[in-house]
Amino acid sequence: MSPLRFIGSSIQRKIFFGFVMVATLVLAMVLAEYQQLGQVKQVSEEILPHGQRTGRLQSLGVSLSALESNAERLLVVGDLEMQEKVRQNLDEVRALLATLRQDAPSAATPSLTQLAQAIGRLDERLLTLPERAASTRARNEQTLEIYSQLRQARQFLRDLTLETQSRLESDVARQKSIIANMTLQFLVVGVLVFLIAIAASLYVARSIAAPVAELARTAEKIAAGELTSRARIGSWDEVGVLAEKFNLMTDKLRETLDGLRRSEENYRGIYANAVEGIWRVALDGRVLSANPAMARILGYDSPEDLLVSVTNIREQLYVHAEERDRFLPEILERGAVAGRDFLFYRKDRSVVWLSSSVRVVRDDTGKVLYSEGFVTDATERKHAEEELRRHRDNLEELIKERTAELIAAKERAEVANRAKSVFLASMSHELRTPLNAVLGYAEILQRDAGLTDRQASGLSTIQHSGQHLLMLINDVLDLAKVEAGKLDLDPSAVSLVEFLPAIADIVRIQAEEKNLAFNLTMPTELPKAVRVDEKRLRQVLLNLLGNAMKFTDRGQVRLGVRCVAGGTAQATLRFEVEDSGVGIAPDQIDGIFRPFEQVGEAQRRLGGTGLGLAISRQLVRLMGSDIRVDSSPGKGSLFWFDLVVPLLEAAAASPAAPSLVGYEGPRRKLLVVDDVASNRNMLLDMLHPLGFETCEAADGSEALAQMDDVNPDLVLMDVLMPVMDGLEAMRRMRQNPTWARVPVIAISANASTTERSQSLAAGANAFLAKPLERDSLLAQIGQQLALHWVVEGRRRATTADDETASTFVAPPLAELEALHQIALAGNMRHIRDQAVHIASLDPRYRPLADRLHTLASAYQSTAILRLVKEQLAKAMAA
Fold first, then answer.
1. Is the four-CA dihedral 856, 860, 865, 870 of positive or negative sign?
2. What whole-number distance in Å separates Cα of residue 116 and Cα of residue 100?
3. pLDDT at residue 49, rounded to an integer
4. DSSP assignment letter at 571
5. How far apart are alpha carbons 209 and 235 in whole angstroms?
6. First CA to last CA across the chain, in angstroms?
7. CATH superfamily of 492-648
8. Shortest CA distance to 580 belongs to which of 602, 554, 605?
9. Are 536 and 619 in contact (CB under 8 A)?
10. Is-contact 25 196, C-beta < 8 A?
11. Where are the alpha helices (H) located in 749-812, listed in sequence order?
């Protein structure tokens, strides 16, 4: 490959080569001219000082002429004023000479030196002229010498001026010569650059234009349809590459057109053989094209037959022509519509349902050309939909009938549920009403110090049996409340370090009776106090532990509590009850939580109501958790649940409440209203010893009749009574201005929240549930009447604090264990009852019984529990 061929291998390089040649010549010309310009500048810099010096010499000549004129006058006249002017002329001449020397020290020629010397001598002569009285001869000689010096100075000035002009003319001539050389050099280089630029342009144009012309001819052939034409360009520049790409494009174009022809053939095949109808319709309703399927759907022999026969689809094909009127603007606005169903006429005037998807085709300007769509026969689908609609209508009728049946069943269930609620409330009332009298009289009678041991034991049996029956009633009511979603929790501050050991002590006695080991695992990092419903949590744990004790004959029972997650505000506590008893089969675990259901032979043999675990699970779920069970037959069981509880600083201590025997101040009159005479008598017997005046009524109507005559300070009103119930009586009392401010304490055997709310709404100041507890009743009476109570045994309670456990005689172990369970439960009334019972067994036990009674009256639960534990340990050691 020749160098020229290499250089011309690309258009860019060709243009670059020509540009480089021209630029090189231009650069050479510029450099030469720059050099010449430098010389011109140098000469100009030399000419300028000569011109300035010439001007100064001319000024010096003028100053010498003035000096000569003034000196001549000085010599003739000789006055001092003229001498001053001469001195000024000399100063000017000396200043000009100094400037000439300073501007061009190197140009200080002999003429300039001689001129300066002549001026110096002239200065000396002119400034030392003799006075006018001097001799004329001396003056003439001095005058002649001055004139001689002036002529010399002028001659030296002329020589210096001629010398300067000669140098100036020499520099100007040299500058002109340099400029002439620059002009000639510029012309020569310019002509050379012009010639080279023309040559390079001709070369580049010839190497580019010919291939481009060949490429244009090939493009014209391809545009004419000769796709086999090739651009034959042998250059290696961009045009050659373009030609090669052009040939590749031609090949691709030929392949694309071949593919389009094949696609068109395939489309025509699909168009002709498609199952769906395809057609194009003009805006005026003419059918522009249709495939065979479209003709077949509409019952025509061929697409041609359809195109000839149908000139307006609105008039000839649409069963409902107005549908076309609505459909056409819609597709024009939206551009495409899919899945619309229309009823069309076939050629034989039968009707067919068509499902049509249509789009609008526009030209480049946006003008609508036609619409094209796909059509399927939807007749079978429409028939199926109609059949489905009929079935749906039938199904809706069935659903309505079934719904009516369900509503009726629901109403029956609600009626049954209300009946159950009414039954439970009635049973609760009917059971609590006699229990109120039984437990109340038992408590009153146990206070009689003259009871024999047999009588005291019988009253204690009555008391414990009544409490057990009350517990069963409460369990049934709790279960009903849970199922109805009406059981509410009552969270309070609970000290775990006191709560858990108290439960453990209750269970430990049962474990010892069965020779079982009982363990309480409670880590030291357990929160000291939490907020939880203490009553319900104790009920759950005692149920689980009682269940574990019941089904464990040997081994151990464990109560464990640990913190599985904690924070600053709340913690997650896990409560575990584990035993080594008979265990439960996996398929029976769910059954143990169903109410009134017992699974396994051991469960049936040991008996029970079957409510404990069911109520426990519901209570735990109400607390936000659930009871889990891990058990295997013969390997024991593990019951556990997690509770998220808020953390507290410390549990509040229960306030102490002393035992009351009377009140200070004037006697108060109480009206007791109850339809059951035994309940009225029990309340009267309870209130009389305290100093109250009492009167009674059997129903609300009778109570209202006595109000003006009796004028009571407080009314104890039973809610459920015949003739007029307590709610209506309280309403009427509040409506009477005379009785509106009399305090009323409502009493009911129905301890539900609804009963309490209704009583308070009717006008009651407080509400108490039967069976009544003496302490609760007296607390409400004292609050309503603002009484100052008289405390029993104040001195004896004080002195008894100094007594120790060693001064008491311990009763039998069984009595102590029963007392221990009651102490752990914290029921002060039961403790007082048990103390009376212990005192009735033997006079030796009375000091201990009196101590227990005193502590119970003061609600000293901790001291009671400590005293009982000490006595229990003493009895077991003996």
1. negative
2. 11
3. 67
4. E
5. 12
6. 130
7. Histidine kinase-like ATPase, C-terminal domain (3.30.565.10)
8. 554
9. yes
10. yes
11. 753-762, 774-785, 794-800
Question: What is the DSSP annotation of 658-702?
Answer: --EEEESSS--EEEEE-S-HHHHHHHHHHHGGGT-EEEEESSHHH
CATH number for region 274-377: 3.30.450.20
Q: How far apart are CA 252 and CA 263, in angstroms?
A: 16
The CATH T-level fold of domain 3-210 is: Four Helix Bundle (Hemerythrin (Met), subunit A) (1.20.120)
Span 169-183, average pLDDT: 75
Q: Tokens 């398929």 correspond to what residue?
A: 587
User: Could you tell me which residues come within 8 angstroms of residue 873 by beta carbon, excluding any fewer than 6 positions away?
Assistant: none
CA distance 874 to 872: 5
pLDDT-derived band at 413, boundaries 50, 70, 90? confident
DSSP per residue over 117-159, as a string? Answer: HHHHHHHHHHHTPPPTTS-HHHHHHHHHHHHHHHHHHHHHHHH
- Identity of the amino acid at 733: M
HSE on the CB side for 41, CA within 13 Å? 6
Give span(s): CATH 3.30.565.10, the chain. 492-648
Among 838, 847, 806, 841, smallest CA distance to 819 is for: 838
**Phi then psi dihedrals of residue 518, to 5 deg:** -125, 130
Whose tokens are 């009588």? That residue is 455
Type of residue found at 645 = V
Please provide the CATH number assigned to the domain covering 401-487.
Answer: 1.10.287
Instruction: State the Cα torsion 300-306-310-311 to the nearest 10°.
Output: 180
Looking up tokens 């003006």, which residue turns up?
708
CA distance 717 to 731: 12
CA 380 from chain centre, in angstroms, equals 53
- The answer to whether residues 38 and 31 touch, using CB atoms and an 8 Å cutoff, is no
The H-or-E segment that residue 631 falls in is strand 628-631
The continuous run of DSSP H or E covering 307 comes out as: helix 303-309
pLDDT digit string, tens, across residues 637-695: 899 999 888 888 754 444 444 567 788 878 899 999 998 888 888 888 888 878 888 99
Average pLDDT over residues 489-508: 84
Is the CB of residue 589 less than 8 Å from the CB of residue 629?
yes
Q: How far, in whole angstroms, is CA 454 from its chain's centroid?
A: 74
Tell me if residue 457 falls in helix, strand or coil: helix
660-791: CATH superfamily:
Response regulator (3.40.50.2300)
Return the number of other C-beta atoms located less than 10 Å from residue 443's C-beta.
23
356 neighbors 375 (Cβ within 8 angstroms): yes
Report the distance separating Cα 409 and Cα 280, nearest Å: 61
Which of residues 84 and 5 earns the better pLDDT score? 84
Q: Per 3-state DSSP, what percentage of the chain is helix, strand, and coil (rounded to 5)?
A: 65, 15, 25
488: its two tokens: 């509410």
pLDDT for position 604: 45
- Token pair 């495409």: residue: 336
CA dihedral 303, 308, 311, 316 (to 10 degrees): -70
- Sequence ranges of the chain with CATH classification 1.10.287: 401-487
The number of beta carbons lying within 10 Å of the beta carbon of residue 642 is 17
Every domain of the chain with CATH number 3.40.50.2300 lies at: 660-791
The DSSP call for residue 333 is H
| pLDDT > 90 fraction of the chain, expressed in percent and rounded | 9
Alpha carbons within 13 angstroms on the beta-carbon side of residue 239 total: 24
Q: What average pLDDT does range 159-169 have in this prediction?
A: 75
